[in-house]
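Table S4 entry, Gliding motility lipoprotein GldH.
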Amino acid sequence: MLQNRVVLFFVLVSFVFVSCDSNRVFDEYKSVPNKWHKDSVISFKVSPPDSINTYNLFVNLRNTNAYKYNNLFLIIEMVFPHGKTIKDTLEYKMTEPSGKLLGTGYTDVKENKLWYKDQVVFKETGEYTVNIQHAMRENGKVNGVKELEGVTDIGFRIENPSIE
């Protein structure tokens, strides 16, 4: 009986946390096995709810203390339903000047919500594909980092803009 109450408590608490996120339209994560290979592309299939409203787009990233860089370069490609493609290379700050990892979390796993685009209108109806690939390089080296350590999950998130 006590076990059932504990399970019920955790289900209710989880429901409260999930339901409080009223801005979420799409939010999905994919795990990175051990190391993120430079040729590995993480893809998300997205069907936006409408072609009228504006949305904010984010890349979510979970990383551990094994992540040894101050920044992160990502190549983010959005493929529209009718074939148009937009590709961006973006840099994100991952640590404080002291070397402490940025992000939220109480353990050695930090979660970062990284801005991608804001005020986006999905004018074409149908399924969009978002592809995310790392583009890390070490100073003075031409070839990219072949296997990026410390990244555990990559996510993509679409939000309704906050109404204040």
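Residues 6-18 have pLDDT under 50 and may be disordered.
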